[in-house]
Amino acid sequence: MGVKYIPEPFRIKMVETIKVLSREEREEALKRAKYNMFYLAGEECYIDLLTDSGTNAMSQEQWAGVMRGDEAYAGSSSYYKLVDAGKDIFGYEYIQPVHQGRAAEKVLFPILLGEGKYSISNMHFDTTRAHVELSGARAIDCTVEEASDPSLRVPFKGNMDTEKLEKLILQYGPENIGVVVMTITNNSAGGQPVSLANVRETAAICKKYGILFNIDAARYAENAFFVKQREEECKNMSIKEIIKTMFSYADTFTMSAKKDTIVNMGGLLGVKEDTELFQKIKGRTISFEGFISYGGLSGRDLEALAIGLYEGLDENYLRYRIGQMEYLAGRLDDAGIAYQAPVGGHGVFIDAKAMFPHIPYYEFPGQALAIELYREAGIRTCDIGSYMLGNDPDTKKQLKADFEFTRLAIPRRVYTQAHIDIMADALIAIKERAASVKGYKITWEPPILRHFQAYLESIE
Ligand code: F0G
User: Fold this and answer.
1) 230 and which of 145, 155, 247, 341 could share a cystine (Cβ 3.0–4.6 Å)?
2) Is residue 5 part of a domain?
3) What is the pLDDT of residues 8-35, one digit of tens each?
4) Which residues are catalytic, by number?
5) Could you tell me if residue 74 is inside a domain?
């Protein structure tokens, strides 16, 4: 019982003051935000776990890099530094900066997809699904069965179901599958890792049918840390070797660099070998993001990103990082609170369906718990369940997600053990009054990515 907290492998040099609103003020804020966490102001949140994306604390080396950033429109030295780092770590010939992950999707996907085409993934993240659909194509998730049982502790719950993948390819026709996407770690399944063996198998299937294999690489370093811990063939490899090996199996990668590269803004697109794809990517980057040597970023962002790419690989840092999740998960185990287990890499995904068995998926248990966490302790989180999944693009009916999670996404190098204890205490308090918590209904929603903007109301 009880997991030891791994001390921060850093000292704090700059601080940001946070404040707690009173219970009444929080209730007002929720009402004003129409029970949508994205409408709360950052300053209204005591502990902000909405996302681990772009919320990281940069190091002194990165801040020094910000001052060195070269702002040349074309050919800035920061761009060359970033490209060299990308080539070194991933082993790809072509590295294109873009302003964030969805920009990489916007540049790449319409080249590969369109009306009548499909993208198959171990799980599409919401923006990834949106860009597949915006191209006119359809997104199919193909996650291993184990992922949908939060209490089942297996090492690689993020994996692609490769048997099902091959069946889907044959069912829809290989010529209609524009891309296979491997999301590492598998964010929506709970930050769950994908094994090197699974990437290799998926790559072999893609090769057999001539389908392009893309890695959605937002959390590549956390994934590599799990692989090193859990996969026999990798236990003596460095994090960098694991990453290079894993990426060698894919053809391209899209990356939100706002996660494992520990910066506040940025994205990357990689192509392994010289193909016509380069040229098309360059054209679309110039149209949508800016010239290829800055891709929607400032020179200072490119510089911080180049440094962060290496900092994110540090094993001491990764041990502490994953250790934070394990510590919180340990406290939840002691309290009998269910979450996607074993805990993933960038957050703890609480099983809201288990906490609120009386709230059906169409009344959004994950969102209900997010609201309660704010009410209880000023903690902002988000739903990763049916509320986020949204409606079927063809029938417009509410889809039922495989799970109903509330995600406590932990920003990198930001919160301490005391903050994590507050998260655990809040969840324990909510569990005690869980039976009285009500579901929610949507009173207004936009057609795509509705969870960012929808209005909600409690069901009385
Ligand atoms: N792919 C994955 C797996 C992601 O988790 C995200 C973003 C993206 C793509 C899109 O990247 O935000 O830089 O445009 N995930 C964030 C999250 C927003 O909260 O999980 P982006």
Assistant:
1) 155
2) no
3) 999 999 999 999 999 999 999 999 999 9
4) 73, 125-126, 216, 218, 259, 451
5) yes
pLDDT tens string 282-319: 999 999 999 999 999 999 999 999 999 999 999 999 99
Residues 318 and 303 in one domain: no
How far is ligand 1, taken at its centre, from the CA of residue 56, in Å?
14
* C-alpha radius of gyration, the chain, whole number: 21
29 and 87: one domain? no
- The pair of structure tokens assigned to 444 is 């207004």
Same domain, yes or no: 362 and 247 = no
Contact 130/446 with Cβ under 8 angstroms?
no
Q: Which atom of ligand 1 is closest in space to residue 186's alpha carbon?
A: 3
pLDDT 10s digits, 160-174 = 999 999 999 999 999
Task: Give the closest residue to 258 by CA, choosing from 99, 451, 63.
Answer: 99
Same domain for 335 and 284, yes or no, is no
- 286 and 346 co-located in one domain: no
- DSSP assignment string, 126-178: HHHHHHHHHTT-EEEE-B-GGGG-TT---TTTT-B-HHHHHHHHHHH-GGGEE
DSSP string covering 323-358, please?
A: HHHHHHHHHHHHHT--BSSS--SSEEEEEHHHH-TT
Q: Is residue 445 part of a domain?
A: yes
Q: Is the peptide bond before 342 cis (omega within 30 degrees of 0)?
A: yes
Cα(256) to ligand 1 centroid in Å equals: 6
- As a whole number of Å, the end-to-end CA separation of the chain is 39
Mean pLDDT of the residues in the chain: 97
Could you tell me if 45 and 129 lie in one domain?
no
CATH number of domain containing 48: 3.90.1150.10
The residue whose C-alpha atom lies closest to atom 1 belonging to ligand 1 is: 125
238, 134: one domain: yes
Single residue among 260, 292, 311 that ends a domain in this structure: 311
Could you give the CA distance from residue 341 to residue 416 in angstroms, rounded to a whole number? 22
Whether a cis peptide bond, with omega within 30° of 0, leads into 285 is no
Collect contacts of 132-139 with beta carbons under 8 A, ≥24 apart: 133/393, 133/448, 134/106, 134/109, 134/448, 135/109, 135/110, 137/109, 137/113, 137/178, 138/393
Pick from 281, 296, 311: which residue ends a domain? 311
- Structural domain boundaries, residue 159: 60-311
Number of continuous H segments (helices) and E segments (strands) in the chain: 16, 14
408/326 same-domain check? yes
Whether 15 is covered by a domain: the verdict is no
| φ/ψ of residue 396, rounded to 5 | 65, 15
- Ligand 1 neighbours (beta carbon < 6 A): 51, 53, 100-102, 125, 127-128, 183, 187, 216, 218, 256, 258, 267
